Amino acid sequence: MIRYSIPLALAGLILLPTATYADEGLADVLESAMDADFHGSGVVMCRWGQDSAATTYEVTRSDGMSMVSGPAGDFILSGSLIATQSGADWYALEVGEWSAWNLSERYSLGDRVATTRLGRPATEVIVMEGERKRARLVIDDESTVPLLTEVFDGNGDVFRFAALVEFIAAPVTELEMPEGFMEHEMLMSDVPSPRLPGAAFGYSRTDTYAMGDTGTQAFYTDGLFSFSVFEAGLGTRPAEFDSATRFEVDGVAYSRIVTPSNVWVAWSTPDRSYVLVGDLPPDHIEEVLRRLPKPGFRGVIMRLLFRLFG
Amino acid sequence: MTHPIDILSALLDDELSPEEHSTVTSHLEGCAACSADLAGLARVRSWVRALPEQEPPVPLVPALRRPPRWIWAAASAAAAVLAIGLVVSPARPEVFDLDTLAGQHTARVVVAPGISSIRGPVGGP
Prior knowledge:
The complex is a heterodimer.
Chain A: H1 2-15, H2 19-22, H3 26-35, E1 38-48, E2 51-62, E3 65-70, E4 73-78, E5 81-86, E6 89-95, E7 107-117, E8 120-129, E9 132-140, E10 146-152, E11 158-168, E12 182-186, E13 199-200, E14 203-211, E15 215-221, E16 226-233, E17 245-249, E18 252-258, E19 263-268, E20 272-278, H4 282-290, H5 300-309
Parallel strand pairs in A: 6-12
Antiparallel strand pairs in A: 1-2, 1-11, 2-3, 3-4, 4-5, 5-6, 7-8, 8-9, 9-10, 10-11, 13-14, 14-15, 15-16, 16-20, 17-18, 18-19, 19-20
Chain B: H1 8-12, H2 18-30, H3 32-50, H4 60-65, H5 69-88, H6 98-109
Helix pairs in contact in B: 2-3
């Protein structure tokens, strides 16, 4: 009897930390991570070809509120409201309406391995996309906060790396919303763009928001990654793309900017300008672009005429 | 000296150099044929100068200098369309601002689970 006790006890010690996620799927893991309270500081890096970007950030989450300090300044999140400070004033965007969240069936949880991270018991979770390893998460067992996330591109190389380097599971900081702020509410558009598909490479267009008089924001998600496509009249492409990296998909040219958290892609059709921003990996971006309106004729005269006549 | 027929007109117009002038006048003094040609040339020139000035027929100048009518018609139509377009075309949309787009996207990202929202949105373009 003793002969079997020692191996069983060792097995139990090894399996114990993974028990938290033993009965959970990826959707449960993601939802648990959304609700966890913690304070930490970390680093985010992103690389696509020769383009790369990195930054540090600090995040505190408590009682459903979060404060994130990064390269774009400070954000306070509370429910569906995100507030940012500019000078002495606070501005807030509130998502007035959004569709239910669904996780694509193409993802599944692979092997889970007990490990430690920042000196804490943790579980390594592999997210599989079919037979391909798409992401690796190291999740703190106590708080369910991801201490490390890696996203892999189509070649299996790391596309984005995010890791907390400092972590406190039970922050004492009390977060408060600023007393006054200018607020803009994002509302669904009554007339979604007919040019943008309802789904693209497993991403569903869940919401479309109006922007100004003629622009729209179409939000796509597969539950793990997400992106927005902004569509407006010709000539609305941001100037930052003038010096952006050019790349081709099926022989047609796009411009891209890589930032730590997102990749930006811009292109124009004969009568519209488009900007895509999202956290999806490059191979997904290329597949998505194949399903969106394609860059068209860029002749100067045509652009001039369309600029004149809309 | 050969007969200076080709420069008699220049003599009448006083366009010869002193040397040429001297040579030609010396030749004329001994050459009746050239003197006769010079007199005839002077006479014709005086007749031409005495003719009344007349305007050429009106259609002649447009036919020589103006492009075909269809070009004028096309150019006029294009100008008219351009002018109408400038007047009635919708206002040019504002250029996308990357910070605004980042805010719009981030705001939507944070309301649902995803690999970015679970680690805290860093935001910013």
